[in-house]
Amino acid sequence: MALALAALHIWGITETPERSFFWFLTAADLLVAAVAAVHALRWPRYAVFEEDALVLAGLRVPYDSITSARTGWVSAKPFWLAFWLPNSLVIGLIVAAQNSTKFAREVVEVDTNHGRFRARWRDTYGQRAFVDALRAARPDVEPTYGLDGTNPARDCTPRLGVPGGLLACALSVWALFAGLLSVELTDRSTYRKPASTEATSAAVRTLAAGFRDYETLPGVAVDFRTWRCERRNGILGPAPDLVELHLVLESRDLPATTAAAVEAKIREDAGMDERSYVMTVDENSDLRLNLPETKGLSVWVSTGCVDVDDAERLRGELRALAAAVGVR
């Protein structure tokens, strides 16, 4: 699962180039996958009783080296305290109030000529099956009840102590954030619907064709501004594949009478109501003409959201539109 989420979050990086959390999530995914692989290799789910030896967690124990065996139980309460207290203080306190026997794990300790190993089970069924198989392999070794905690033993199953609880807590935090942010990727819609490049291009050419007999405007430069299209889901940031182009023709130094005359002619040629300042050029595109009330000349032509790969083509057509009104 961690590797599948890593693949999803790598794709999320390409969808959210202005956000960094998917980089961190991908690193966390790979770390979780590595930890899971290490645990799977270190602690296999089954013990194998071969003809002459017991194989458990990479440990091969010849039957004739076994000297004694003991059964008993240990409590996994420290594990659950370490897991719940950081996650939920209330549940952690409830766990702390419980008797340790409610978290009992069945244990078998086996002594050999080369040391001691220990295995744990959640219930008695696994422990009984192990003991029965051990009796069949070594009928002369009868397991006794009562663990010997004075000497160290090699653990062949997870200890379920405080470190394990903290690791499980960290995994729960990863699962929460990985799940929530993965769901966020399902909504990548933008506030403005993507407009057809062909329709936008046709609208620009139609608008430019209506602008005739304009004198060259000195001191007015062609200015292009490119904005990423904002998504409805602000967590993801702007869309990387959609941009909004703005042709801006402005001059604060142009005489007021000249600026007013140019804006009036543009409004008339575009078919804009004299009391309006913004108009959508046609119904097939999101091309807008904006004549804001400012000192001097101010003309904005905006394309709406278009494919970023078509931006350069539309800039060329907007440049031709600027030339039609005398700005070169």
Structure write-up:
With 328 residues, this protein is of the alpha+beta class. It folds into two domains: 43-183, no CATH class; 197-324, no CATH class. It has nine helices and 13 strands. Helix 2 (21-42) crosses helix 6 (162-184), helix 3 (77-87) packs antiparallel against helix 4 (89-97) and helix 3 (77-87) packs parallel to helix 6. The mean pLDDT is 87.
Task: Please specify the SSE layout and strand pairing.
Elements: H1 2-15, H2 21-42, E1 48-49, E2 53-56, E3 59-62, E4 66-75, H3 77-87, H4 89-97, E5 104-112, E6 115-121, H5 124-137, E7 144-145, E8 154-155, H6 162-184, H7 197-209, E9 223-228, E10 242-251, H8 256-270, E11 278-280, E12 288-290, E13 297-307, H9 311-324
Parallel strand pairs: 4-7, 6-8
Antiparallel strand pairs: 1-2, 2-3, 4-5, 5-6, 9-10, 10-13, 11-12, 12-13
Helix pairs in contact: 1-2, 2-6, 3-4, 3-6, 7-9
- What percent of residues adopt helix (DSSP H or I)? 40-55%
- The percentage of residues in β strands lies in 15-25%
Structural class: alpha+beta
Unreliable segments of 5+ consecutive residues: none
Give me the number of helical elements: 9
What is the average of the pLDDT values?
A: 87
Count of the domains: 2
Strand order of the largest sheet: 7-4-5-6-8
Q: Can you count the beta strands?
A: 13
The CA-CA distance between the termini, in Å, is 57 Å
String of helices and strands: HHEEEEHHEEHEEHHEEHEEEH
- Biggest sheet: strands, sense, closure? 5 strands, mixed
Any idea what the shape is?
rod-shaped
Question: Over the alpha carbons, how many angstroms does the gyration radius reach?
Answer: 36 Å
